[in-house]
From TrEMBL:
Organism: Capsicum baccatum
InterPro entries attached to this UniProt entry: Fe/Mn_Superoxide_Dismutase, Mn/Fe_SOD_C, SOD_C_sf
Segments for region (Disordered): 1-33
One Pfam family this sequence matches: Sod_Fe_C
GO molecular function terms listed in the Swiss-Prot or TrEMBL record: manganese ion binding; superoxide dismutase activity
Highest taxon in the source lineage: Eukaryota
Record-stated family: Belongs to the iron/manganese superoxide dismutase family.
This protein's UniProt keywords: Metal-binding, Oxidoreductase
Segments forming domain Manganese/iron superoxide dismutase C-terminal: 29-82
GO cellular component, one term: mitochondrion
EC number: 1.15.1.1
UniProt KW Oxidoreductase keyword: yes
Name assigned to this protein: superoxide dismutase
């Protein structure tokens, strides 16, 4: 499974937002990644909310991953402990 690392900070989820491009934030994914996110999760905001929830549920510290399940050919959200 291919994974993308997302930094899981200890600040509360409501304080973690995507900054506008003019404030140093990035653009939402386009092309096949954007399509896959919209198809599987509904929106980028839904992915962010779910990843924040998964990270908040981790005991102590760990990682939340957005990955590609090559067998199922779809995006997945997984967690691992440190």
């Amino acid at each position: 499974m291919d994974m993308i690392a997302i930094d899981q900070r200890k600040d509360p989820p409501e304080s973690r937002t995507t900054a506008p491009t003019r404030e140093g934030g990035g653009e939402p994914p386009k092309g096949s990644l954007g399509y896959a996110i919209d198809t599987k999760f509904g929106s980028l905001e839904a992915v962010i909310q779910r990843m924040n929830a998964e990270g908040a549920a981790l005991q102590r510290s760990g990682w939340v991953w957005l990955g590609l399940d090559k067998e199922l050919k779809c995006l997945v959200i997984e967690t691992t402990a440190n």
